[in-house]
Write a structure and sequence with these properties.
Blueprint (H helix, E strand, L loop, with lengths): L1 E4 L2 E4 L2 E9 L16 H23 L3 H10 L2 H13 L4 H17 L4 H4 L1 H17 L13 E5 L4 H4 L7 E6 L7 H8 L4 E3 L4 H4 L5 E5 L4 E4 L3 H23 L14 E6 L2 H7 L6 E6 L1 H5 L7 H14 L4 E4 L27 H6 L1 H14 L5 E5 L5 H20 L9 E6 L2 H5 L1 H5 L4 E4 L1 H9 L17 H16 L3 E4 L10 H7 L3 E4 L4 H9 L2
Parallel strand pairs: 3-4, 4-5, 5-6, 9-10, 9-16, 10-11, 11-12, 12-13, 13-14, 14-15, 15-16
Antiparallel strand pairs: 1-8, 2-6, 3-7, 7-8
Helix pairs in contact: 1-2, 1-6, 2-6, 3-4, 4-6, 13-15, 15-16
């Protein structure tokens, strides 16, 4: 018997079942280079596999929005051009070309600091495996063929691996890699399957058929438990299921504290599908719509019309509140179709609102799209990384310019649309009272605010223990922001990780926070905390 403590809980829950080791095929590509006369045939071979993959993904996309994103990746011009050029110009066979291009694309996302963005690289690798399976003639393993209750143990899982699994049979998932924001984690949450990720060496510690217990609430795995431990986990599982049913029963209860304050509970999302997944939690709205995904998952700057259709759909799905953060790229977030100059310290460089204000026509296309969507729900515009009153005023002036253009064109929009800002820099904290006189709302981004206030790179493992949003300086800054906002009568929310940490709820309520916005999986837990405070 061995106990393993785990840091990353992707989906809460308790499970006890035998292990099923899910081992992938060997994806190592053929390293052979092509002769000149073989190039055309290899191009045709890849084209045939690509056609089959697109057809398969098209069928899956009709049933699951995740695969609609995979279909876009598989048909992406930059990806296809990268593969075909390696075959044509570098004489690499299709397997090797696919492997190299997929790794290059995935590495761009893996290098990002934002956990949500980092995990998008897994989607690119999933598509790459579909290509490789066709080129190598390999049939991918099928979790849909399971016939008994198991805990799946794997190096990593991708949406294609999990789409057929049955929650009646798969009682838990443990992976050596992966992150809490991956699509697999999202799928596991939607199926209420306890999931722990990033468990290094777990494949070496379990054997097929070995009994495994897992507590994905506290991050504990016990391999080959004795009878008393197994009985303990079976009882814990019953208690957890009762708690989950209790939390679900509270979804229609307003988030009101015992002293009568109504708190807004909202979701952080990256696309329309994320909103659909959050709606069953009975959310009060979307506190953060990360618009950068429209740009990052594209081959060009999305047009006004392309953005409008997405924002409109989002506003109609969640009419009570849709807070769209304007383009937040730079730092660790690149675009495949735009060259950023290499910077010594990109997190202090050309990013977010700085890019938008320098590229005004691009920015106006986004603002026009958001304004048009505001006719279909309560849409709010939120500007990221503001550090000066001049920046805020310039952004607001562009909104007014877009309003006049739309009015002249006879296009409708919410004339009283709210314009707010992220509070995520030391400058915004120190100038909070000044900003509160001109912003319609604040949203505290604790991820960046913490790293800037404490001078701690949250992606640096050597100093990870120093990244702490409970640090007195961070808590003091949050309090200062809330007091400044309330002094001017504006609503103050939070959309950083701290908002979804139930340990932080008492502190944030005491400070007077009005809105908590978080990943959908945390909403039930935060609601219960608020009701009991």
């Amino acid at each position: 018997m061995e106990r393993i403590d785990v840091e990353k809980t992707a989906s809460r829950g308790i499970a006890a079942a035998v292990a099923y080791k899910y081992l992938e095929p060997d994806w190592t590509p053929d390293m052979t280079l092509l002769a000149e006369e073989e190039v055309e045939a290899e191009q045709q071979r890849f084209a045939a596999v690509k056609g089959a993959v697109l057809q398969e993904l098209g069928e899956l996309a009709a049933e699951n929005e995740i695969f609609a994103a995979h279909l876009e990746i598989a048909d992406d011009f930059m990806l296809q051009e990268g593969i075909t050029s390696k075959i044509r110009d570098e004489k690499k066979n299709a397997q090797l070309a696919v492997h190299e291009v997929v790794e290059e694309f995935a590495a761009v996302f893996a290098a990002m600091d934002d956990a949500y963005m980092k995990e998008r690289g897994a989607d690119i690798k999933d598509v790459g495996k579909r290509f490789l399976a066709g080129l190598k003639g390999i049939k991918r393993p099928d979790l849909g063929s399971l016939s008994s209750e198991v805990i799946v143990v794997a190096k990593d899982l991708y949406p294609s691996d999990t789409v057929k699994l049955s929650p009646e049979l798969v009682k838990g998932i443990i992976t050596e890699e992966g992150g809490v924001t991956s699509h697999v984690s999202i799928i596991a949450k939607s199926m209420n399957i306890p999931t722990l990720v990033g468990v290094k060496g777990i494949l070496d510690k379990v054997e097929d058929g070995m009994m495994v217990c897992m507590d994905a609430e506290k991050g504990i795995i016990v391999t080959d438990p004795d009878a008393s431990v197994l009985s303990e986990y079976q009882e814990k599982k019953k208690a957890y299921e009762e708690q989950r049913r209790h939390l679900e029963s509270l979804r229609n209860v307003p988030a009101v504290t015992k002293d009568g304050k109504r708190i807004s509970l909202c979701a952080n999302v990256g696309n329309v599908e994320d909103i659909r997944k959050a709606l069953p939690m009975n959310i009060d709205g979307v506190g953060l719509f990360r618009s950068e995904f429209l740009y990052m998952e594209n081959t060009h700057f999305p047009t006004e019309e392309e953005q409008f259709e997405v924002y409109k759909e989002a506003a109609m799905l969640c009419p009570q509140e849709l807070t769209i953060r304007t383009l937040d790229i730079g730092g660790d977030k690149d675009l495949s179709y735009f060259d950023f100059e290499k910077e010594e310290n990109p997190f202090l460089g050309w990013r977010a609102i700085r890019i938008s204000l320098d590229m005004k026509e691009m920015f106006k296309e986004q603002l026009r799209a958001i304004l048009r969507a505001s006719a279909f729900g309560h849409v709010r515009i939120m500007f990221p990384m503001i550090i000066s009153l001049e920046e805020l005023r310039e952004a607001k002036a562009l909104v007014e310019e877009c309003k006049k253009e739309l009015s002249a064109e006879g296009k409708v929009y919410d004339e009283k649309i709210e314009l707010g800002m992220m509070m995520e820099t030391p400058a915004s904290v120190l100038l909070a009272e000044t900003f509160a006189k001109e912003a319609d709302f604040f949203s505290i981004g604790t991820n960046d605010l913490t790293q800037y206030l404490l001078a701690v790179d949250r992606g640096n493992k050597k100093i990870a223990d120093r990244y702490d949003y409970f640090h007195p300086a961070v808590v003091s800054a949050i309090g200062q922001i809330i007091r400044a906002g309330h002094k001017e009568g504006i609503k103050v929310g939070m959309c950083g990780e701290m908002a979804g940490d139930k340990r932080a709820v008492p502190i944030l309520l005491e400070l007077g926070l009005d809105e908590f916005s978080m990943s959908a999986g945390s909403i039930d837990y935060v609601r219960e905390q608020i009701i009991n405070m």
